Amino acid sequence: MTSFARNQWYVAAYGREVGRDLLARTVLGEPLVLYRTEAGEVVALADRCVHRRFPLSESRLDGDRIVCGYHGFTYAPDGGCVSVPGQKRVPRTARVASYPVVEQDSFVWVWVGDRALADPAGVPRAPWLADPEWTTVSGMEPLDARYCLLVDNLLDLSHETYLHGGYIGTPEVAETPITTEVDEDAGIVRVGRHMHDAECPPFYARSTGVEGRIDRFQDIEYHAPCLYILHSRVAPTGVTPGPDGDDSGAFHVEVVYAITPSTENTTYDFWAVARDFARDDEEVSAFLRESNRTVVLQDVEALNTLEKVIAAEPDGYQELSINIDTGGLAARRILARLAAGEEAPAGTGAR
Ligand code: FES
Ligand SMILES: [Fe+2]
């Protein structure tokens, strides 16, 4: 059974998904209801009425309060019940849990662990997603697989060659060795793969307009447990940054994933692709949105299959790992340690 690192920030939704309609999301097995107050603040409450468990997400908003759709218990944004039907006295214990929320970089982050440990400054950043200098397309696909399978998948991009041929995969991805760096204290895994004189996959050929061979750099930064960033640089072969660091001859894409465990065997796969070129070109946006969604769905299908295989197998199956798995194995180690509670919350650096 997977155990989760609870005292961590996780993405529950995009900010654009949270409004004056009640949104249900389950994070680390906790059913949540999300909405925005009239002043625009995001609220996250437990999605179970204390009375008879009716989901608050299937109820209605009255101003900033949720009125339970079954018998009318009414909850304020802090989770406190402010009225019950048929009596004046509201029982002291009539309250649902409320969860700390941070809205940042287009995401709504929630903390479902011990709220005394929630530090908004510890939310990892993906600044491109809300930066007007970048153009972003994004989406979310639900996964019927445990979240560690998606972490494995994203930390080993050699699978692009086989699973995503015709989109982002070319022979060079699987052929080029990786470098891996692990910052155990910060819980960050970095995996780099720099390909020179490589084939340009359709994903980049069509979006950038580059013809011919390219230098293609993939630099992954995984901030355990939830945030994954792939710094992708594509340039015609031989175009290098100037001595002053100016790299405007290259095309930059920041591919961001937020990997949020929903239940033991289901995961929210939030994906975003931010670019610094063709920024106003709607056709490029539509192409990248469609291509990346297809790529994500290829992963979803493969991982859903793996989940079924794992669920059906007897205990004790021995995987075989090779060099390409170094980043994924480091991530597993960090996640296991975070879940075991051996580590102070991310960002403190303390042990
Ligand atoms: S279940 Fe919510 S008021 Fe009864
Ligand atoms: Fe993939």
UniProtKB/TrEMBL annotation:
InterPro entries: Cholesterol_7-desaturase (IPR050584), Rieske_2Fe-2S (IPR017941), Rieske_2Fe-2S_sf (IPR036922), VanA_C_cat (IPR044043). Pfam families: Rieske, VanA_C. One of its GO terms (molecular function) is dioxygenase activity. Residues 9-110 form the Rieske domain. Transmembrane segments: none annotated. It comes from the Bacteria. Keywords: 2Fe-2S, Dioxygenase, Iron, Iron-sulfur, Metal-binding, Oxidoreductase. This is Aromatic ring-hydroxylating dioxygenase subunit alpha. It comes from Actinoallomurus vinaceus. The lineage of its organism: Bacteria, Bacillati, Actinomycetota, Actinomycetes, Streptosporangiales.
